[in-house]
């Protein structure tokens, strides 16, 4: 029976994966544990070089050296000393395969995908009964753990899942800035952007000209000036909502559409029905494109 379920190599300062993995387990406990491993990997710089996050069924062990850290998900019944023996050998194998002092660890981390073969090989030896040869390092690791015991964490702590540090480091927060990728821009979306820019420009030009006249002669026409400038701003924000992801997109989209429609109805007389229908149609098309352009589905991460 496997006692080491998953292992990886990451960069210490930001948790950037330096290895891929073919380990796939559909057990819910494992999937939850791997989420916490990813969150913990981005906070390794806050911890000592050795640490253990214990759970009811699974535990996470990590061992860092310089800019590289090895991490593993093991059964909670697996010996802590054996787990660090495994991590020591994995670190040695990685150092032997790659010159971590000169290699650019920030460039193309998945170039290390072939290291998965070495991970699987070492993991197999430690999981099998023939892996008893690893006990040759037992005394050395045991002695090191006496003088430098690993920091103890709890796997159930929600702080790990949220990417926050604890275990004697409470008050230190890891700030993770989420990045969102939208689906590709469609030809119809490009058309809506062009039409939106054109409508915005028309609103701005008409608004500026009307403002010059109103401020000089007709002060009662200020309401019409506002009715031109508001759709101009709405067109700008519609373009922004289509190109970039923001929270509450649906509510913002409907508010902008309402503003465009209301202001154009107010401008009846300065604009004929065809002009009003054109502006409202462009706003409706833009709103439809905003609502249909969703976040890009998360790509498979090769089990890293």
UniProtKB/TrEMBL annotation:
| CC per GO annotation | endoplasmic reticulum membrane
Q: Where in the cell is it found?
A: Endoplasmic reticulum membrane
How would you describe this protein's topology in the membrane?
A: Multi-pass membrane protein
Instruction: Specify whether Iron-sulfur is a keyword of the entry.
Output: no
Q: Which InterPro entries match?
A: Longin-like_dom_sf, Longin_dom, SEC22a-c_C, Sec22a/c
Query: Which keywords has UniProt assigned to this entry?
Result: Endoplasmic reticulum, ER-Golgi transport, Membrane, Protein transport, Transmembrane, Transmembrane helix, Transport
Residue limits of the Longin domain?
8-119
Instruction: Summarize the protein's role.
Output: May be involved in vesicle transport between the ER and the Golgi complex.
User: Record's family?
Assistant: Belongs to the synaptobrevin family.
The name under which this protein is listed is Vesicle-trafficking protein SEC22c
Q: Which organism is it from?
A: Pipra filicauda (Wire-tailed manakin)
